[in-house]
Amino acid sequence: MAKPEDFDIPAGTLFTETHEYVLWDEGEDRARVGISHYAAEQLGDVVFVEMPGIGESFEQGDSFGTIESVKAASDLYIPVAGEVLAVNTQLTSEPELVNDNCYGDGWMLEILLKDAEQLKGLMSAERYLAFLEESANV
Amino acid sequence: MAERTLFEQSVAGRQGVTVPDRSTNQDATSWVPQGLLRQEPPRLPEVSQLDAMRHFVRLSQLNHAIDTGFYPLGSCTMKYNPKICDVVGQLAGFTQLHPETPDEFAQGTLEIVFRLQQYLKDLTGFDAVTLQPAAGAHGELVGMMMIKAYHASRHDLKRTEVLIPDSAHGTNPASAVMCGFNVIELPSGPDGLVDLAVLKEALSERTAAIMLTNPNTLGLFEKDILEITQLVHEAGGLCYYDGANLNAIMGITQIATMGFDVMHINTHKTFATPHGGGGPGSGPVLVNTKLEPFLPLPVVEHHDGRYELNFDRPQSIGKVKLFYGNTEILLRAFAYIECFGLDGLKDVSETAVMNANYLKECLRQWYHVPFESTCMHEFIITSQHQHARHGDINTMTLAKRLMDYGFHPPTVYFPLIVPEDMMIEPTETESKQTLDAFVEAMRRIDEETQTNPDTIVQAPHTTPVKRVDEVHAARNPDLNFYKNFRPTNVGPDQLQGCFTASQFCP
Amino acid sequence: MTSFIPHTADERQQMLDRIGVSSVDALFDAVPASLKHPFTLNTLPKNGRSELELQHYLTAMASQNPGAGMLSFMGGGAYARFIPPAVNAIASRSEFYTAYTPYQPEISQGTLQMIYEFQTMMSELTGMDVTNASVYDGATAMSEAAFMAVRATRRKVLYVSKTTNPQYQQVLRTYCHAFGDMALGWFDPDQPLGPQFTHEPNTIAAILVQQPDYYGTIRPLSAYQEAAKATGALLVVAVDPMTLALLDSPRKAGADIVCGDIQQFGNSVNFGGPYGGFLSTTEKLMRQLPGRVVGRTVDKEGTTAYTLTLQTREQHIRREKATSNICTNQSLNVLKATAYLSLLGPQGLHRIASVSAERAHELAKGLLAVPEVSLRSGDAYLYEFAVRLPIPAKTMVHQMAHQYGILAGIDLGKYWPEEDHTLLIAVTELNTPESLERYLSAFRDVIHNRGLSVLPSGMSRDVKMVATGTRGGQ
């Protein structure tokens, strides 16, 4: 079994307890959303990602799509409220990008932030690592 | 070895069967308005009868089936299908009976169906029954529809929640949701049973029902069942019994006695109607007097020496299936029960439970058994010990390796609450010799985890195809030959064998 | 020990010893004593019958179904047709019929490839991209299609043609009522659609029609296509797949989902089941399909192989979020259909449909020449049509059966009280030209006598005598 420290958890990235991440540069009104390396590994070979349409709006915690491996399916939850500016259409034909490079080519959404304050409630990379360690010890 | 599709074997102009021709020169243009005529013929195979026979017979030989080998498949009750029960599928008096035939010309079938209803009531202790549902999951849906109708008839509309243990079959929550209910999942206790404290906490005036399997999917009998059903009733809910595991307790106790209000039976499990490679099934639903008014239309009744279909039931939930149910399957189930009688059915359950406990006792020498207590007709083991020896060995690889020994794998990764589990149900029709052979295979596989783990990781080796790439299948869905035209890859050696054997033989 | 439980007394003892219990009863200690009580048996026999006795009994009961041997013109969603013996030879391979659901692809390639071929054949007939591995029957298929449209459009109103199969309608009502939060509207397909749609156009999930409809009538589908386009609803077309040998594919008319029943392809009428429903759809809606689907892939050595795929739609993975609770496909019925379609091929299927239609039109011509008998269905029909009678259809069915041993058709008063003078008649290749003569002559007699019995009371002919084996099907 892989240990929490084996997973890629880039510094500066924000995480949710449901294993989505947000890539955001201080002062920007937009951010990128995807799932963490840990989540991608847990799912195994990703075979399908269902994504919302551009222009759709979500409140924090809303399900914005689903991600599927051969034998599992999970809902995807939006880490912070926002409007969808772009979706990674490449995932339609190459869902394996989520496994290969979840923080890069395997990104999912670009959103326009509704309330940047919500970002403060997310976990930092350090806290996410601690969260994974706690979960592993249960 | 791959078999080419019939589309690839097709030769324009061939036909596998002759059929009568028209006697006039009228054709489709005489009957079909111009714009609605078919423009190009469907690309169905054009093959000789021999081509078709060989194709399907060769395909059949690629299958594992009860008649070829053992299926220790938990919760599936893959027992022998007695051939005497096939008789009903061969008698024209049954097969050629049109469902719209007036009752008076269909008394034979109606009588058997009526008697089957009576038998099932005697066996389970319920008051009324519908034979309409086409499968177990369909029965669940019908049962939940009746529960919804019951609460509605009492104007008790706040009951929107259905309680389901986390060990339940996936059909349970799916069926409840199709009736508009919200599912509340009950975490099982450490002993694998319903935790009464958890149950009490979950019950409220919103509880419509609980759905339970007993014995549960871990093969354990819910010993507190009377208390469970009483608690649910006191909260105003009803109790649904998922009959998937009925093979464990026929003739031992009646389901209604446990306090259940409604149940379904899977005839393809308990009463050995052929599984057919995935169906057809049949899912009779039994109810007590509370739910009887809501049974689907029609029900078979017996009045003044005549059997008839009664459609006049004002509180019925309505029709749930075309016509009356999977009649041929019901007739087979009837024939099965006739083979045994109550004493025979009790023997069925006792032997099924004995076979399961015997297997469990044998396998625990090498495999982790998470629940030690006496099991009913099935039990759980895991691959924990074997995985500890080799990281790439898990339940899936062990299952695949079993195929090389000629056995169908057990149900794997279910129930979901035990990681890396295998659920084993031997059924009563397997002899001690078959069980011993299975135990020996499991022993050897355990040995291989130490001596030759790679054989397991790469398994299966002797099956018609090797490990199938399911990821590729899901990423690139190819569900229609003509949309994804590419020739079947049969591999050079197999192609050669095919030519020498069937085409160039001197 | 019985023939189906192989254990000898010695073996039982060995096994109990191994388990470490003294008797089988000890294995049931977890069952509370209060639950273990003697059964009160009303009808369930205590002991089983021998195979010979059972065979005698079943044969005797089969002979109590005179309807099975009568000359039949009944359809309405179930049609008796010639079943080539090769179909039954294939279906009786127990490697197929005693196999489990093909969840383990390495040892289930036979069933999987057969289903893949079935999916392809049905997609060819319907013109759609993909077809599922089947659901219970045509009625539940239409309900599943409706639910699928609701999921795909996230709308909740369904408009259904009043001339669809009444049993399909009843099942749809039951399903929708149970689910709640859905609205059903009904429309007359012979009236302009727009004014009949009373819900907001942008709330309509699907328009559901049947082609040919329950009366046998064929209509252009263009009006529905336009209505679907205008409202953004999906067009669901329930079909009789046999008619697709002659009719253009519903895809050409803009169908988004096509559903129906495969019973006529190699399956007996069997007093209502088992049959097999199917759903075909576009690639776009593929992931909304309920039920099992087989895909073609490769094994690790690159050899073509088949497997169940897109399984995350299904209940065993998605549980309460599944596209349906269904956990069955009618594999054995699908096998018969696949064998049937393979044996007949495009030409055989065309010929069966044509012969049936030719004879139906022949019979209709004769019937319509009888005074006061008129066509209830539209002018365009294939092998099923409805006529209006000067006497109640119920009387016609009764007299034809009792006096002439003919099952004349379906009395539509059963489904719609206002149609109590309408008789639905189906003709297949089993109905020979001679049998049409027999029907016509009996029909004329019954009309001539205004439905009154021509035999003195108490002298009704023994129907079993009339029930000669005139039908060639299985």
Give a brief rundown of this model:
The complex is a heterotrimer of chains A (138), B (506) and C (474). Chain A is an alpha+beta fold and 138 residues long.
Descriptive key words:
heterotrimer, A: 138 residues, alpha+beta, six-stranded antiparallel sheet, 4 helices, 9 strands, 30% strand, B: 506 residues, alpha/beta, three-stranded antiparallel sheet, 12 strands, 36% helix, globular, disordered C terminus
How far the N terminus sits from the C terminus of chain B, by CA atoms, comes to: 24 Å
Shape, principal axes of CA atoms of chain B: globular
The secondary-structure class of chain A comes to alpha+beta
* Count of helix runs of chain A: 4
Strand order of the largest sheet of chain B: 1-7-6-5-4-2-3
Helix content of chain B: 25-40%
Identify low-pLDDT runs of chain B.
492-506
Q: Largest beta sheet of chain A, briefly? A: 6 strands, antiparallel
Question: Can you tell me the residue ranges of chain A where pLDDT is under 50 for at least 5 consecutive residues?
Answer: none
> How are the strands of the biggest sheet of chain A laid out side by side?
1-2-3-9-8-5
Report the sheet-strand fraction of chain B. Answer: 5-15%
Major β-sheet of chain B, in short?
7 strands, mixed
Extended strand count of chain B: 12
Query: H/E series of chain A, N to C?
Result: EEEHEEEEEHHEH
End-to-end gap of chain A = 15 Å
Tell me the Rg of chain B in angstroms. 26 Å
> Which H/E pattern describes the elements of chain B?
HHHHHEHEHEHEHEEHEEEHEHHEEHHHH
- Helix-and-strand structural type of chain B: alpha/beta
Q: Please estimate the helix content of chain A.
A: 10-25%
- Mean of residue pLDDT values of chain A: 92
Oligomeric state of this protein = heterotrimer
